[in-house]
Amino acid sequence: MGYKKPNPNPPVMLKQPSANNYVDGLEIRNGRLINLRPDSVMGIEQAAMYRKQMKKQYKIDCIADGIERAKMRMDGDRNIYEY
Q1: pTM of the predicted model, to two decimals?
Q2: 7 — pLDDT class (breaks 50, 70, 90)
Q3: CA–CA separation, 58 and 64 (whole Å)
Q4: Burial per residue of 65-81, b for 16 or more beta-carbon CB atoms within 10 angstroms, e otherwise
């Protein structure tokens, strides 16, 4: 057996969070703390997101309603000329 050169890029061993390496969303991997916590959203930021979604949905509903009314008018105009 000869000399075996060490691998300069050893494979990273990812551990499942366990009691000894996991504290409050932080996990220890290869001597470093890895943040596994979910993104925090404050109440006012969440309310602003909901308001933005509601405004966007209102615009979509208005456009869909306009398209539906235009189709109804087109169908109504065809009936006038059929007589």
Answers
A1: 0.47
A2: low
A3: 10
A4: eeeeeeeeeeeeeeeee
pLDDT of res. 38: 77
| Domain map (residue ranges) of the chain | 22-81
Length of the chain: 83
> How far is residue 74's CA from residue 67's CA, in Å, rounded to a whole number?
11
Q: What is the pLDDT of residues 38-53, one digit of tens each?
A: 778 888 988 999 999 9
Which of these, 65, 41, 64, 61, lies nearest to 53 by C-alpha position?
61
Number of H helices, E strands in the chain: 1, 3
Angstrom distance (rounded) from CA 79 to CA 52 = 41
